[in-house]
Amino acid sequence: MTYALMRTISAACVTLFLMGCGQNPAAPSNTEPASEPPTAQSAVINPPSMAILILDDGAVSGAGSSATDNKLERGRALYQRQCGACHSLDQNRVGPKHRGVVGRVSGDVSDYRYSRALQELDLIWTVETLDAWLENPSQVAPGTAMGFRLRDADDRAAIIEYLGSVSPEP
Amino acid sequence: MSDQDLIMPSRRAMLGTTGRTLSLAGIAMIAGGCTGITAPATADETNSDVQILNAAIALEHEGIAAYQIAATSGLLDPAVVDIGVIFQGHHKGHRDELVKAVLALGGVPAEEQSLDHYAAALDAASLTNQTDVLRLALRLETGAANAYLGLIPSLGTDYHQIAARMAGDEAFHAAILANALGDPIPVAPLIFG
Q1: What is the structure's pLDDT at B38?
Q2: Which of B82, B117, B147, B175 is the most buried (most CB within 10 A)?
Q3: A51: burial class by Cβ within 10 Å (0-12, 13-18, 19+)?
Q4: Do A54 and B180 touch (CB under 8 A)?
Q5: Among candidates B47, B79, B187 on the partner chain, residue whose Cβ is nearest the Cβ of A20
Q6: Is position A64 within any domain?
């Protein structure tokens, strides 16, 4: 497939998506190919002002941006992307709320219904135990309902540092 | 004897030999897969699968509720509601597949909670316009795609494919929502997981 064809298809897709939601499609000039090899800042279909990855809740990230270099911001973004389906800081959802989790006793959120595996688990959530948990929850607490594993050690560290940075419950 | 006669027997012979070889190998693989090679799941493994699949059911319950809350919020254009209803139907399909799996394993499927519970859990009161709703949906769908991909290593192999298929659906939803919001296409590969 030629680049020109790919460009045409991409522009058509964006137009269709935006039309489907009642918005105006981006101006054609925004779909012009970059004259240089794509980078995180340039190889996007949308306007250059939006040429960073908007994650959620205003979090921003992008290769080479200062935000990416900030480990806490990276941890926050990763937390949203990797944990956000089931968890939030202040609400019990599929999993228990996380604010103040670092230093907390396992299975200790009073208004959350834990699996038997977590009810019987007896440990303190430290950097080390959280790292082991995120790497393979079933190894820490066999029979847990949390099957999600995060293989990348740097990602685990960033998330744990972020969770340690958020203020605990008053 | 023609040239064709000379060729055909040898082709048949070749195909026959190959076919027998493949058939034997195939039978051995099938037999191995059904009997000796794959050990039956232990009770602990089955219990683990039930627990994890039930967490996925809870996730789908929340997703279904999220689209219900969004559709009835009055914040969305009718065309967006239509898309949301389709996505909600996908999540209902996921829930049904997961419920079947849990029942097949002898477990009790996780029950849905009240719409008020999900509204509070998702802080629905803070949603004030269509963009807020789409942003929440994108966050949930992105998280769900990552959640399914991340739980595959913990699940028994029988459920790897269905989890991957569900991750694909969630990623599809996320892609459409991101485009509707005007988010740029991620440049780096391996967008999810």
Answers
A1: 62
A2: B147
A3: middle
A4: no
A5: B79
A6: no
